[in-house]
Design a protein that fits this description.
The protein is 49% helix and 3% strand. By secondary structure, it is mainly alpha-helical. Keywords: Membrane, Transmembrane, Transmembrane helix.
């Protein structure tokens, strides 16, 4: 039997030597502590290993033995490292994914808009070409002569012609890039796709800020962007560009720390977000009053209700009001003034147009012509891939189909009805959202709801600027917003119930079918938003529009064809008498009537009298007309010259 004692150390020595050493941390190894200090272990003597290959662990005598159990010390990053970290966080942020999803969805839904963006345009070749010219003109004139913004190169010699339609002035920065009709068409197509994306992103942001989850937010955004009623409005970019409304409301709610689900939370206030919301609202109204004017009145109503509510709570001494903050108040004051200033400055030329051109004023008869009946809310447009053909008979019974097919989506309506009974919103909030659906729906009907005597007509007669809205059916946008929030509440409640159910399982996770089920409402919304929007080829610019100076007249001058002339003029922006808009000035009607017999002495004298120097006759437009028989006749006896120029005839007066 071995009598060796066990080895206590790793150096091969034991027995007496081991017993002679005292363990670390014993009283003998502690150095004397000064008053107010705690004893610390004395530093062990460092010595080399006794055998080759043996390692001796060296310890720091001042190291805290409990340091290894604490969190690691913070890493001091360099400036490059901090930038890299911030970029990495931004790339995986929820809003990054929301923006990318909105852009991707917009490209897919609007396809093939970006397939041939230089040559085709969505919906038709009439109003979209007008709006392509509008963006080009605003960008051009703001770079060259901003004082002449409202006196455009079209509708010569009428004044303030840029205010004959919603000006899309908010897109002027895009109009500063490129020149000519091809650039204008490309610009229009890109903005058209981005408008879809902004509606989705704005709807998502609004629903999330008000308290829904991500899937419910996506349902709200998709419902607003893909509502079937938007499809026939594809030729009206100012109507499609409504995403700024939802985004501004979301930013303002975020800045004021407000959500439907949690109410007012002062600790979440942020003056910067509030100011950003006002700026986005100002940009939205700069796109046009057709959509922007009701938005302005909604904002005014929200401000008044909020101010009265806060004042009542402020002066109720038995209930301490929640703080508001001077920074937020300053942001609201500055943002509100900017919003009001932008609206007022834009309104001035429109009020002047209504004074200078009596036929620009809308009447109750005009409103009656465009007022949709109740059944319009359940009729899909022809561009709807799912319902278009099925609703043909019902659609043909409508007097003005593009403005009266107002289906928000059957899937959206069903989810909103479910949201009345099963939702994350309180009963009171559901009732208010339902009231919003009813009120906005009734206003959308214009005079079709009992003549509008107590609904639309009082607004038309008493609210400044309301007379400029000729199509009440576009107020269905607000009906869709309220429906989307009701639907989002139902989807959020369903998603939360799915999570609760998953927690009851072992293991606590939802299965694939449960995960898929939470996406079914979103898939239904997307399916109903599928469309068959046509993309016709834009007429090519003739050589004469690049070579002939203004003031000029292009014949024949007809509302629709004149919009092509407007687009073609974006190369030189020469003055042209042609123009198309929501109304036709008396002077333009007079020019068209006086040139019916052109070329003759009477029409030539008239054109010279108003300053027109050149007349361009488009051969392909006059086929089968009286002008086709006169266009090749000699004109020397009239004191003018005639020149053939690539499928056009140019008369120089």
């Amino acid at each position: 039997m071995s009598t060796d004692k066990p080895q206590l150390t790793g150096d091969g020595q034991g027995g007496a030597e081991a017993g002679a050493r005292k363990p670390e941390g014993s009283a003998a190894s502690l150095r004397a502590a000064a008053p107010g200090e705690s004893a610390t272990p004395a530093a062990p003597a460092a010595r080399p290993a006794d055998r080759p290959g043996q390692m001796t662990v060296m310890t720091d005598p001042n190291r805290d033995p409990f340091e290894s159990f604490g969190p690691p010390p913070p890493v001091q990053l360099s400036r490059v490292g901090r930038i890299r970290t911030a970029v990495a966080r931004a790339l995986v942020h929820e809003w990054t994914f929301a923006i990318l999803a909105g852009l991707l969805a917009a490209v897919v839904v609007t396809w093939p808009t970006l397939r041939y963006p230089l040559h085709t345009i969505p919906q038709d070749i009439w109003d979209p070409t007008l709006q392509a010219w509008q963006m080009a003109w605003s960008g051009h004139i703001l770079l060259t002569d901003p004082a002449q913004l409202w006196n455009s190169n079209t509708f010569y010699p009428n004044e303030l012609s840029f205010a004959f339609s919603d000006a899309l002035l908010g897109y002027a920065p895009a109009g500063m890039i490129g020149e000519g009709p091809v650039a204008a068409v490309l610009r229009y197509n890109i903005i058209y796709v981005l408008a879809y994306a902004l509606v989705f992103i704005g709807g998502y942001a609004l629903a999330r800020q008000l308290g829904t989850g991500r899937i419910a937010g996506a349902v709200a955004g998709a419902a607003l962007a893909l509502a079937p009623w938007r499809l026939p409005q594809a030729g009206h970019l100012h109507v499609m560009s409504s995403g700024g409304i939802m985004l501004a409301l979301a930013m303002l709610a975020r800045g004021h720390g407000y959500s439907l689900r949690h109410g007012y939370r002062p600790e979440r206030r942020h003056a910067g977000w509030a100011l950003a919301g006002w700026l986005v609202a100002a940009w939205q109204i700069s796109l046009g009053f057709g959509i922007g004017l009701p938005f302005a009145y909604v904002l005014l109503l929200i401000v008044l209700v909020s101010a009265v509510t806060y004042a009542v709570k402020r002066f109720r001494v038995w209930k301490e009001p929640k703080p508001f903050g001077w920074r937020l108040l300053a942001a609201d004051a500055a943002g509100g003034l900017i919003f009001a200033a932008v609206g007022a400055l834009l309104a001035i030329p429109y009020f002047r147009v209504s004074e200078m051109y009596p036929n620009a004023r809308r009447s109750i008869a005009d409103i009656e012509l465009f007022s949709p009946p109740l059944r319009s809310f359940f009729i899909a447009p022809a561009e709807s891939a799912l319902w278009g053909e099925l609703h043909t008979v019902a659609r043909d019974a409508l007097p003005f189909k593009p403005e009266m097919t107002l289906l928000p989506g059957f899937a959206l309506i069903g989810l909103a009805v479910a949201g009345l009974f099963f939702s994350i919103w309180t009963v009171r909030q559901r009732a208010l959202l339902a009231a919003g659906v009813l009120v906005s729906g009734v206003l959308s009907m214009g005079t079709a709801f009992y003549g509008g005597t107590f609904t639309y007509v009082p607004l038309f007669e008493h609210l400044p600027g309301w007379q400029g809205i000729r199509t009440p059916g576009r107020l269905v946008l607000w009906t869709t917003i309220f429906l989307a929030l009701l639907a989002a509440g139902a989807v959020a409640a369903y998603s939360r119930r799915a999570v609760d159910f998953s927690r009851e399982r072992v293991p606590a996770r939802p299965g694939p079918l449960l995960r898929l089920a939470t996406l079914l409402p979103l898939l239904a919304i997307v399916l109903e938003g599928a469309n068959l929007t046509p993309h016709p080829i834009v007429p090519q610019q003739p050589l004469a529009m690049r070579a002939v100076d203004g003031p000029m007249l292009v014949l024949p001058s007809v509302g629709g064809w004149d919009q092509h002339v407007m687009l073609w003029s974006t190369t030189r922006f020469q003055e042209v008498t042609n123009g198309g808009s929501g109304f036709t000035p008396t002077k333009t009607d007079e020019i068209r009537a006086a040139t019916q017999s052109f070329p003759d002495q009477t029409s030539i004298d008239y054109l010279r009298g108003i300053g027109v120097r050149n007349v361009v006759v488009m051969r392909e437009w006059i086929v089968g007309t009286d002008l086709e028989a006169r266009v090749d006749l000699p004109v020397d006896y009239l004191g003018i010259t005639r020149e053939d120029m690539e499928n056009a005839v140019v008369y120089r007066l």
